[in-house]
Design goal:
By secondary structure, the chain is α/β, with parallel strands linked by helices. It has 15 helices and 26 strands. Helices cover about 30% and strands about 25% of the residues. The C terminus is likely disordered.
Length: about 500
């Protein structure tokens, strides 16, 4: 049995009335949660699902999602968590060839070859709705004891890839997370991130495994009910992504959000770089809380971390307990401190490989068990890691290897620029590859593209300057707050007829 399920059983026996999960409108005690998970697990077995089966989990972001996730773990199946939309569910079915579907509505299960039935456990006992889908034609079960999840990378730079994470791996990741924040039974942990992504998904295991309280504030709409939930439950720990924290602190919700965090001792940020300005905003607005910065990918969970008051403002921290970080140059030699190279990581939180893709796995994982993250960075003398961009975000422009992240860094450094994103495209008129930047100007600021190009010319070699700068209201993002480069390429190609995508990657699907 996984540590999560053992913790659920233990807490249900010790104090069955203790709150386990709280949402805007519902709450479940540990006794209720344990009973529902057991009943749904039996119902799934009755429907024909078995250990090792892949089951697409498109049940939204609330109580049903958690109950279904744990029930699948109980029978040893592998959940494939996705957004509750026809598109996301269809893509997951196409790429993981599942044996089952758990969805909110029958129309979401409109897939060929499926037998659909309503869940009596969810529909009758929870007064909610869930449909169970089953099909016989699939590739067969995964031979890994204890079940787990199959998650997709965000796809922010290309096609999403499937990663199989078994229950033993999830237990290890949850244990590290509990240790980092000192998670205890009397804690109330709020998730302010998309629950279908492993960054937030792992918090379910961390909380349930130690008998604490999980506050599901993960729909990210932050309307009045959501803020009422946070104010009512007063989280002691909050886990968020930078884009969500920025939205809350720079909107009309700021006051209500700050008041709801009055008992919070730790705020953890991850999945994307937290700009120094955001870090300062959080520490000033929530002065009684400590800001924990974490670095990792879907392929490697929490390999670096640090509290903002202990690390430099542009750092993501030191190697996490049990993790190792190496900076390697293009000749596969270690880089000395202060020199930029490719970031490789190793820890118990590194995946074993991409599901059914041995070729990419062999490229990303070295013989020594280190994962190539695709990031560029440098190790400072104090052991802190500073990220410098992506190794795959480099383009050959007029014979020069140009770092597109470096252009973003220079543009974002202008006092009137709020955000910048640069991509490489072919200019049909010039018949050459050019760097194209999209810039979001700060509120009430005014600046021309000519001034921005002049700013780049002062900071960069002429060959590295963007050929075109477009001022926009926003930069397209994934639900984790990362720049969605495929959508950005599409947008620029539509707006500028002479710009041609070099290679348009598939649209990303968030895990």
């Amino acid at each position: 049995m996984s540590e999560t399920l053992a913790g659920l059983t233990r807490q249900a026996e010790i104090d069955p009335a203790f709150p386990a999960i709280v949402t805007c409108s519902r709450r479940l005690s540990y006794g209720q949660l344990s009973g529902l998970v057991a009943d749904l697990a039996n119902e799934l077995l009755t429907s024909g699902l078995r250990a090792g089966d892949r089951v697409v989990l498109g049940c939204g972001t609330g109580l049903i999602f958690v109950v279904a996730l744990l029930a699948l773990r109980e029978i040893g199946a592998f959940a494939v968590p996705v957004e509750a939309s026809v598109g996301a569910i269809s893509r997951a079915c196409a790429t993981t060839d599942p044996a089952g579907l758990l969805v909110l509505r029958r129309d979401l299960a409109d897939q060929p070859g499926w037998t659909i039935r309503s869940s009596q456990t969810v529909n009758d006992r929870m007064d909610l709705n869930m449909e169970i889908g089953r099909r016989a034609a699939h590739r067969g079960p995964i031979s890994s004891a204890g079940g787990g999840v199959v998650v997709q990378t965000s796809g922010s730079t290309g096609a999403p890839k499937n990663i199989l994470l078994n229950s033993a791996y999830i237990d290890q990741v949850a244990a590290v997370g509990r240790s980092l924040v000192g998670l205890r039974r009397n804690d109330r942990l709020a998730v302010l991130a998309p629950i279908t992504h492993f960054y937030a998904l792992r918090e379910i295991d961390a909380v349930i495994g130690c008998g604490a309280r999980l506050i599901l504030a993960s729909d990210n709409r932050f309307q009045a009910p959501m803020l009422d939930l946070l104010n009512r439950e007063c989280p002691t720990i909050a886990v968020a992504v930078p884009s969500v924290a920025d939205r809350l602190l720079n909107s009309r919700f700021r006051g209500a959000f700050v008041r709801s965090m009055k008992e919070t001792r730790i705020i953890a940020l991850g999945t994307a770089r937290a700009p120094p300005e955001l870090r300062q905003q959080i520490t000033e607005a929530l002065s009684d809380a400590r800001l924990l910065l974490t670095y990792g990918l879907t392929e490697c969970s929490r390999v670096a971390c640090g509290f903002s008051d202990e690390i430099p403002c542009d750092s993501v921290g030191q190697a996490a307990p049990g993790a190792a970080i190496e900076i390697i140059d293009n000749n596969d030699r270690p880089c000395p401190p202060g020199v930029t190279g490719r970031v490789f990581v190793k820890s118990a939180g590194v995946m074993s490989g991409y599901w059914q893709d041995g070729v990419i796995t062999s490229v990303q994982l070295t013989d020594r068990g280190f994962l190539s993250t695709g990031d560029l960075g440098q190790m400072e003398a104090d052991g802190c890691l500073t990220l410098k961009g992506r190794s795959d975000n480099v383009a050959n422009v007029a014979g020069y290897r140009v770092s597109l992240d470096e252009i973003d860094f220079v543009l974002s450094g202008h006092p009137l620029v709020a955000e910048a994103a640069t991509i490489a495209m072919k200019d049909e008129r010039l018949d050459e590859i050019v760097a194209v930047s999209v810039v979001v100007v700060r509120e009430e600021a005014e600046i021309s593209t000519a001034q921005l190009i002049a700013h780049c010319a002062r900071m960069l070699p002429r060959s590295h300057c963007p050929r075109l700068i477009a001022i926009a209201q926003s930069v397209p993002k994934t639900i984790l707050g990362k720049v969605d480069r495929p959508r950005l390429i599409e947008r620029l190609a539509e707006q500028h007829s002479t710009l041609i995508p070099l290679a348009l990657p598939p649209k990303p699907q968030e895990a």
